[in-house]
Design goal:
371 residues; binds magnesium ion
């Protein structure tokens, strides 16, 4: 690895909450990545929705395949910019661990249920999982990850919540930045989902080629693809176009970010934390990204079939939440804690569910005795 002096360095890590002897084989960021991959929360990503509910089809992205795609994009950007690939990979693999079942619809529903109890936010939940909810280790709670991985997982956070989080929350109050590795994972996430949602949208039949051609950036590239290979079929043309678009975004991100970094004189990671955000897209590509997101929102996320799934998610999560708040014994929670503590336990339980487990629980708890 050809690392820049301002890249994250496992040798100079701000450490783990519980001190551990170093591994003989792996650096600390690799060790973080491995702990994430071996966690139960990571395995459950396989059965959690990105846009389409998991049982809608085997060909669509899930949170697991999304996380792998983000990690792949993040590693490439990281290497190009001379940053630490292992850290970028660990953050990318963990970035969606806190997602509820049923994608954003599930998060909105759970947040509404938790309104009186501090709300629900998936980023914060990802950190809670790695900091305390995973319980496979004897010596500590959670996965005991390095500060740098935890800093990257906590993408945004309100000041109110940041105050409760100690060191890892400080940057939100002090308005500082995380490492460049963390910054680039956010962009890798957006680039990955914008493009794979076009692909899944088309394969689901909810977004057509004609609609896609209404998006000027897509159209421009697809005309180019078609003129190079006139016999190409529609599906191949869409695939090639998506690949090229992704490549253009990633190249632009690397070039633009490198130029921004080169204008400064950074010597260490703390210089990065004290500077403005350095990773970004050029103005032209940022505009293209905006129009891509607008297109996906209108054509796919607000599509009646996706909306129907959203409404269903709302019902399922609300009903399970209410049922468990009234009968915590159903999941072996005693009545000894405050309402607030109970709500957090119930919320952790629901947030950890896969789509199908949430549907099974809903059937079992909420639909069994309708007569
Ligand atoms: Mg994501």
């Amino acid at each position: 690895m050809n690392l820049k002096p301002f890249a994250a360095d496992p040798q100079k890590s701000l450490g783990r909450q519980f001190k551990e002897a170093p591994s003989k084989l792996r650096n600390d960021f690799q060790r973080d990545r491995d702990r994430i991959i071996h966690s139960g929360a990571f395995r459950r990503l396989e059965y959690k929705t990105q846009v389409f509910v998991n049982h809608e089809g085997d060909m669509f992205r899930t949170r697991l395949t999304h996380s792998l795609e983000v990690a792949q994009v993040a590693r490439g950007i990281s290497r190009t910019l001379g940053l630490h690939e292992d850290l970028a990979e660990a953050i990318a693999l963990a970035h969606d661990l806190g997602h509820t079942p049923f994608g954003h619809a599930g998060q909105t529903a759970l947040n509404r249920c938790m309104k009186e109890y501090g709300g629900f936010e998936h980023n914060l939940q990802s950190l809670r999982i790695v900091d305390s909810l995973e319980n496979d280790y004897v010596d500590f709670k959670g996965l005991n990850l390095t500060f740098e991985t935890r800093e990257g997982i906590l993408k945004h956070c309100s000041n109110k919540n940041a105050l409760k989080l100690g060191e890892v929350g400080k940057r939100f109050i002090q308005k500082k930045q995380p490492s460049l590795e963390a910054q680039l994972v956010n962009f890798a996430d957006e680039i990955a989902y914008n493009h794979h949602d076009i692909d899944d949208g088309y394969r689901s039949g909810l977004v057509t080629f004609d609609q896609l051609k209404g998006l000027s950036f897509f159209n421009e590239i697809s005309v180019e693809v078609k003129s190079e290979s006139p016999s190409i079929n529609e599906k191949q043309c869409i695939k090639s176009t998506i690949r090229r678009m992704m490549n253009i975004f990633i190249m632009d991100l690397c070039q633009y970010s490198k130029a921004q970094i080169d204008r400064e004189n950074f010597n260490c990671i703390d210089d990065i934390r004290n500077a403005d955000p350095m990773i970004g897209l050029s103005e032209d590509m940022a505009k293209k990204q905006q129009s891509l997101k607008r297109f996906l929102r209108e054509a796919l996320y607000l599509h009646p079939r996706v909306q129907a799934m959203t409404d269903n998610a709302n019902d399922v999560i609300n009903s399970i939440f209410e049922k468990l708040m009234q009968n915590p014994g159903l999941i072996n929670i005693t009545n000894e804690q405050s309402q607030n503590e109970l709500a957090i336990l119930v919320s952790d339980y629901i947030a950890g569910m896969t789509d199908r487990f949430a549907l099974q629980t809903f059937k079992k708890l909420c639909q069994s005795k309708i007569s």
